């Protein structure tokens, strides 16, 4: 019998569908995963960015964005191989204080300056795996971020967001140097337990901001979307916020509460609410939950994400719904701390906290039986597929039937989304666009890893001079 050289080949030759038998795969062995990785020296670096306007101001956390910077990072190894990694900057999400203290362009410029510093730190360094590289440079990167923002309380996500493009480039360079062709092959053995699935579908999660009319939410359901991220924690005092959120929940439940779906185990639409840290006390959140009981919506609440501000470190295990940690789970250590506080889900952001850190967070959650899903950062189409590769391999979220979960709202917010889609090397793939609320994760998706290993001509042109 020929030994498969990748997890996907193992599934094909053994006929295993859905969740892989990881122990069997490891027992059979994978040269790509078990071979000793090369030491890679970064000999040259480069960076650039594009400013992408939004259709309308995008508001949350008390601020509004009108454009999003897409940064492009170039790495070249001493062997002559090169790679390009992308990053979607989001200063408002990563540190609202930095966003508020500067103009919108000023905040973006600070994050880009931090990315430029990352590249200068990386130049001349050698690494074996991107995770090792991230661990080595993150303290220095974070310290420099504190310095240029004049903020000693800088949130770690600001530094991690600035590192996304360089980390992706490091993974692509790592793959090229070691002859790895797929996303399955680049996953280190230590993180395979958390990323061992091959879902055939992933639920596409659109974002419904405060201003989205309930009628549009109903229209999304009619189009097939069944798992939507709905913003709560509306503007005003805590009392005003609660009353607005109660009214919003009532209106949504009246509009879609009776709709049924084949994707959930109970047939009901799961509700996913994101409060962005707006609730100051447990008692206030419990009042919203009590209201959900009164109107018959309680059993449909699948997730309430980040209800409390990060600095409010109290036990939440007595709250009778699944609370998810997002931006407060900066690192694997932070995620473990949130789990110990009673959070029962983690929103992963490979496209905001780096793929390297995401693997560590996913494994830490897996070891504690905490489910994960992939949240968006309003990223570009190529980064959606980086995120999709993670979502496709996570365990099914509780209450759903063999599905990955991935939020993607770029198509709702970018003015030039179709142009950006043209930069995607896998843009013709059946998995790229959601159909009736789900992404179809075909064999071709896994074979090509969603196109993320393919050259990107639009971005390659930016570094034509350096490649000579």
Question: Keywords for this structure?
Answer:
disordered N terminus; 468 residues; Enolase-like, domain 1; TIM Barrel; alpha/beta; 20 helices; four-stranded antiparallel sheet; 3 domains
Q: What name does CATH use for the topology of the largest domain? A: TIM Barrel
Count of helical stretches: 20
Helix content: 40-55%
Which structural class is indicated by helix and strand composition?
alpha/beta
The coarse overall form would be globular
- Give the strand content: 15-25%
Q: Strands of the biggest beta sheet: in what spatial order?
A: 6-7-8-9-10-11-12
What integer is the average pLDDT?
Answer: 91
- Corresponding CATH superfamily of the largest domain: Enolase-like C-terminal domain
The largest sheet is: 7 strands, parallel
Q: Which radius of gyration do the C-alpha atoms yield?
A: 21 Å
The count of domains is 3
- Flag low-confidence runs: 1-34
Distance separating the two termini = 45 Å
CATH architecture of the largest domain, by name, is Alpha-Beta Barrel
A few lines on this structure:
This protein is an alpha/beta fold. The protein has helices at residues 7-14, 22-28, 31-34, 91-94, 96-101, 104-122, 130-149, 156-178, 183-186, 214-222, 238-256, 282-295, 332-340, 355-367, 381-391, 410-413, 417-421, 443-448, 457-460, 464-467, and strands at 40-60, 63-77, 82-88, 126-127, 201-205, 207-208, 228-231, 271-274, 301-305, 323-325, 345-348, 372-374, 404-407, 438-440.
């Amino acid at each position: 019998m020929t030994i498969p050289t990748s997890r996907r080949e193992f599934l094909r030759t053994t006929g295993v569908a859905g969740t892989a038998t990881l122990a069997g795969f490891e027992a059979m062995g994978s040269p790509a995963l078990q071979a000793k990785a090369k030491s890679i020296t970064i000999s040259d670096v480069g960076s650039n960015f594009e400013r992408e306007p939004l259709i309308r101001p995008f508001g949350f956390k008390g601020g509004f964005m009108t454009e999003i910077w897409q940064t492009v990072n170039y790495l070249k190894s001493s062997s002559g191989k090169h790679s390009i990694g992308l990053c979607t900057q989001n200063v408002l999400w990563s540190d609202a204080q930095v966003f508020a203290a500067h103009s919108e362009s000023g905040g973006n410029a600070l994050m880009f300056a931090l990315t430029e510093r990352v590249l200068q730190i990386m130049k001349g360094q050698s690494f074996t795996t991107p995770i090792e590289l991230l661990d080595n440079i993150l303290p220095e990167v974070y310290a420099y971020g504190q310095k240029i923002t004049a903020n000693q309380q800088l949130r770690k996500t600001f530094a991690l967001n600035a590192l996304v493009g360089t980390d992706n480039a490091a993974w692509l360079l790592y793959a090229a140097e070691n002859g790895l062709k797929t996303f399955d092959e680049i996953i280190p053995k230590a993180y395979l337990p958390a990323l061992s699935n091959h879902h055939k579908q992933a639920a596409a999660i659109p974002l419904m901001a405060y201003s989205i009319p309930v009628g549009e939410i109903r229209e999304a359901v009619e189009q097939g979307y069944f798992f939507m991220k709905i913003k709560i924690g509306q503007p005003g005092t805590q009392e005003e916020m609660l009353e607005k959120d109660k009214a919003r929940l009532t209106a949504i439940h009246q509009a879609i509460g009776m709709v049924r779906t084949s994707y959930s185990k109970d047939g009901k639409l799961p509700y996913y609410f994101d409060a962005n840290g707006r609730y100051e006390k447990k008692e206030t959140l419990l009042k919203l939950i009590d209201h959900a009981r009164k109107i018959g919506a309680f059993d449909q609440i699948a997730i309430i994400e980040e209800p409390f501000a990060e600095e409010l470190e109290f036990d939440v295990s007595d709250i009778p719904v699944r609370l998810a940690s997002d931006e407060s789970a900066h690192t694997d250590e932070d995620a473990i701390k949130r789990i110990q506080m009673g959070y029962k889900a983690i929103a992963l952001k490979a496209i905001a906290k780096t793929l390297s850190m995401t693997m560590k967070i996913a494994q830490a959650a897996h070891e504690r039986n905490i489910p994960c899903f992939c949240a968006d950062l309003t990223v570009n189409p190529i980064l959606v597929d980086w995120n999709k590769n993670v979502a496709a391999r996570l365990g099914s979220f509780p209450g759903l039937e063999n599905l990955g979960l991935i939020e993607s709202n770029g198509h709702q917010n970018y003015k030039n989304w179709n142009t950006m889609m043209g930069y995607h090397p896998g843009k013709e793939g059946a998995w790229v666009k959601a159909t009736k609320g789900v992404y179809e994760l075909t064999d071709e998706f896994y074979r090509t890893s969603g196109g993320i290993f393919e050259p990107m001509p639009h971005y390659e042109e930016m570094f034509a001079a350096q490649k000579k």
